[in-house]
Amino acid sequence: MTVTVNGRPVEVADGAMVSAAVAIAGAPFFRRSVTGEPRAPLCGMGICFECRVTVNGRLHVRGCQTPCEPGMEIRTDE
Amino acid sequence: MNSRPFDVLIVGAGPAGLAAARRAGECGKTVAIIDDNPAPGGQIWRSLELPVWSRQSRVTHFAGTRVVAAPRPNCLAVETADDAFDLSWRSLVLATGARERFLPFPGWTLPHVTGAGGLQALAKSGLPVAGKRVVIAGSGPLLLAVAKYLKDHGARVSAIAEQADLSSLRRFAVGLAAHPGKLMQAVGLRAGLRGIPYLTGCWPVGAEIGTVTLRRGAKTWTEACDYLACGFGLIPNLELAALLGCRLGDAGVEVDNDQRTSEPGIFAAGEITGIGGLELSLAEGEIAGYAAAGKPEAAGRSRRARASARRFAAGMDRAFALRAELKSIADDATLICRCEDVPLGRLRHYSAWREAKLHTRCGMGACQGRVCGGAASFLLGWKVESARPPVFPARVGSLK
Questions:
Q1: Measured between CA atoms, how close is B197 to chain A, in angstroms?
Q2: Which of B14, B117, B293, B311 has the most CB atoms at less than 10 Å from its CB?
């Protein structure tokens, strides 16, 4: 299926999580910390909240706990 | 708000929770399992198809559902991606599992640094690892399982850095002879990892973009890596148990012989009663399931399995005990709290977790201390307790 990451189309396998789509898109990081550091997923299981991205306009969605859906629009911090 | 009633409500669809569900269901009870993940199985059996027995018995599975609060006795408030509702119970089984312990070192917040189990979970979620250069570091048997998984999926694992010394692992290996199944598992893992250096008495002391610096004895060197997968054992997820008032011991939730907690009608099973691995989780889950259904006497076989698994877990705990040197790999500038970006130097002014939270916001961000709490208890010896609703960050609409 196809989703977009920061406006760019990305092909992901069925069952892939949003976190995988962001990595496949080659985005250098997921979010910026409160002091501006680039961050990416740490725990991979919904605990650390480092994978937070914007999905279809909804803020602070945990990328590693959210399955991709066709046409999903994913945005990382920039 | 209306609440859906169940005889037995289980939080956590990993091995312990599923075992409890199965046994409670067999006893004719109405059973529901809540799990935060999109599919059942927990971290070890990620994305499991629900087994046949769950369709035959009356087990309702609430996937992608997290507990927000306990608004009144015998009731949990939960939320999903776009809904919020209450579930009420006669018996509650807590099987919330464990998370990795992360120890901070300079560079551990860089995007290429993940958990050890964390990288495996991400790979299982579709993150491509084929051809990636990976260094795995930290402690515990999980490092080996992760290395095997990543290697089987095409990653180039250049080293496994295990902080424990070879001598303590050797003592443990001798003890394995008393657990033949475990011994075969260990031998199989070693065979699957041929060609990957397993460096005991070795740990990370720093990372920069695309690298890790490792130390072993007097030697310190830098390795290039696409991912540094780093985890220092497991710690139990105690937040919900603490919120419900269950008494906690040093290892986790305190339970009696039937997996009952100190709170009436509330049982606990699996890693939250103390880290012990798959077999112990299954045995405790079965006992909790029978007991929650009012038939604790049916659990005889599981009690023997539990006793054996507990002895094994105690040996493992000793073998992989964290060395004191790991307390000095973070410097004053190293962030401890990744949510609020609080460095170790600022925490040194305080003597306790609560005081540090009030002055620095350490542990008060989105993860609510789930990451820095484990680090603070190891580095600073603080007793880290944080149990107030919402258990996880929740939407305002889910709170009443």
A1: 24
A2: B14
